[in-house]
Amino acid sequence: MNTTGGVPVGRWSNRLLRTLPREPSALLEQDLRQVSLTQGRVCFEAGKAIDQVYFPLTGMISLLVATGDGEMVETGTIGCEGAAGLQCGLGESYSYGLATVQIPGNFATITAKRFREVASSSLPIRDLIYRYTEILWSEAQQSAACNAVHAGSARLCRWLLRTADCIDSNVILLTQEYLADMLGVRRTTVTLLAQELQSRGAIRYTRGRIHILDRGALEARACECYQAIKQKNLLLDIGVNAHSG
Amino acid sequence: MPMYYFHLRDDQTVPDVDGTDLLNASEARDHAIGVARELMFRSEGMLDHNWALWKMSVHDNEGNELFSFRLTGPTDNE
Q1: Residue A178, SS3 per DSSP
Q2: Helix orientation angle between B25-40 and A187-199, rounded to the nearest 10 degrees
């Protein structure tokens, strides 16, 4: 894999790339390149053609839907367990919403055109696309239900745990503004909820940096959506392993 | 724009360490009500204390309390 900047991180950091069988993996390897992307970088705009596939190695991408008055609602997160734009492997695709880099880091990318070519000749890759797209769809539905009925504190805990899983780290670099946007609440609300979690010893919070100290405490306070999404993702592992074997 | 701070208090304090830039005290009042609604949505309380025991205390940049109000209970339908 080519490296164009940042700390070199192998493709093995991404679960989808790691779990592909050797032959399709080798096909992708030739055209993957590694890039460092900063927070806020737009990967796809709503309604525009998907021209790249992004496999996060250390960062995270958020899928967002914008409302008419400019507010953003997060419908999915993609970290080192997944990929953004994978569906373009089945044919030319357009992004329904906005996809932006939420946590900066390293990403393996491949052009949509080349990814389509590789996918057209590889059943394991097409199978992976179907399975992973189903997971993202499930997450979007779970997020919609979560935003409608769960308390802010439970949603904050769910989001922190999910993000930590996505980037495989207990240190999350994120401003309060971003977090408030992701949860659909005011920044002050996030500050107060974060202060409560800090006083319980679950996190250490400073401006732009959240350190998870006690995952168990967060899991106890998170809504059931965290485990539901996690279980869905585990099903992908089972499917991939069955296919590989 | 002036900075306002929205602390939560009962026998302990949950501080708003960041503050928010707002146009005036009227906007601060609207903001405080909005934050209170978001906090109480489908929630019993904070730090194991019922919301009815808490009050929101709004301060200016010099630390003066401008106003405060009690959080009286869940506001699921608001």
Answers
A1: helix
A2: 50
Counting one residue from A and one from B, how many pairs have CB atoms under 8 Å apart? 51
Residues 13-52 of B with CB under 8 A from A: 14-18, 20, 31, 34-35, 38-39, 41-43, 46-47
Q: Half-sphere exposure of residue B36, counting CA atoms within 13 Å on the CB side?
A: 26
ipTM: 0.92
The CATH T-level fold of domain A148-226 is: Arc Repressor Mutant, subunit A (1.10.10)
Contact residues, chain B, for A188 at CB < 8 Å: 6, 16, 18, 20, 31, 35
Buried-exposed string A69-82: b where 16+ CB fall within 10 A, e elsewhere: eeebbbbbbbbbbb
Q: Which residue of B has its CA nearest to A208?
A: B18
Q: pLDDT tens-digit profile of A1-38?
A: 544 444 445 667 898 998 888 888 888 888 999 999 99
CB distance A40 to A106 below 8 Å: no
Domain ranges (residues) in chain A = 2-122, 148-226
**Domain ranges, residue B43:** 3-70
User: Thinking of the domain A2-122, which architecture would CATH place it in?
Assistant: Sandwich (2.60)
> Tokens representing A235?
């099903």
